[in-house]
Amino acid sequence: MSNVKKFMYINNKAPYGTIYAWESLEVVLIGAAFDQEVSLMFTGDGVYQLMKGQDTKEVGIKNFSPTYAALGDYDINKIYVEKESLDARGLTVDDLMHLVWEDEDADWEEKDSIRVVTSAELAEILDQQDVVLSF
Amino acid sequence: MKFGIQVNEGPYTHEASVTAINFVKSAVAKGHEVFRVFFYHDGVNNGTRYAKPPQDDINIQKTWSELAKEHNIDLVICVAAAQRRGLADEGEQERNGLDGNNIMDGFRISGLGQLIEAGIECDRLVVFGD
To answer: Tens of pLDDT along B30-88?
Structure first.
């Protein structure tokens, strides 16, 4: 396994209601150990996965959203959020968690991981991937 | 071409399992290799040997098992997803102190790394599910 491939994880489902979002994140975290080039994409109701201030106490389901903050520590810093999906839901990037990573090549400067992109830009990014996993 | 397959949905409830079976059959018939089928989410339920569908219905679990035997296909059930949903082989039975196991012949339980490895090793990884 010497070759490095571009892995893209597509997340387009709401964080709760079904388990897809949480089990997708588990794949991403395990996959981080394989030294591949990883990107995440959030579209549709998937953008809700990154909402800040999630509280699941009343529904009795585990709130896994703090785990997203660990992605930066795993060198996962390309997190694409579709602009049209945010717009359609009346959201902006300010409604999302502030996810960061530390750039080793820039004296460990903290940089934003989330990039809001249009669907046209996403299509181009998708086109460059080797492996696309959708959840 | 070398294919990796991911099945994300449970049998019967969702058509994804049967579509994946049809895809694997067609790929093999055309001379392609199916390196591995990885079962995730409720897809792990494709690997129970306790399913007894009505006789006039397809037995999805058995079909996978026969496909694997015939074409030497690696059927892997995700361990984390299996533990949540009550799928166990002998090893899992022992480790977790269960009173039995229910895995279908031809399947094995392993980690998520097997899915990533399939992505790395295969020319195409094809995901079946919503």
So the answer is: 999 999 999 999 999 999 999 999 999 999 999 999 999 999 999 999 999 999 999 99
pTM above 0.80, yes or no: yes
**Which residue on chain A is closest to B111 by alpha carbon?**
A30
| Residue burial B109-124, b: 16+ Cβ < 10 Å; e: rest | bbebebbbbbbbebee
Domain ranges of chain B: 2-128
- A6-134: CATH architecture: 3-Layer(aba) Sandwich (3.40)
- CATH number 3.30.870.10 is the correct assignment for the domain at B2-128: no
In this prediction the ipTM stands at 0.89
Rounded CA separation A92/A51 (Å): 10
**What phi and psi, each to the nearest 5 degrees, are found at residue A98?**
-90, 95
Which residues of chain B make contact with A20, given a CB cutoff of 8 A?
8, 41, 130
CB-CB: which of B6, B116, B130 is closest to A30?
B116
User: Which residue ranges make up each domain of chain A?
Assistant: 6-134
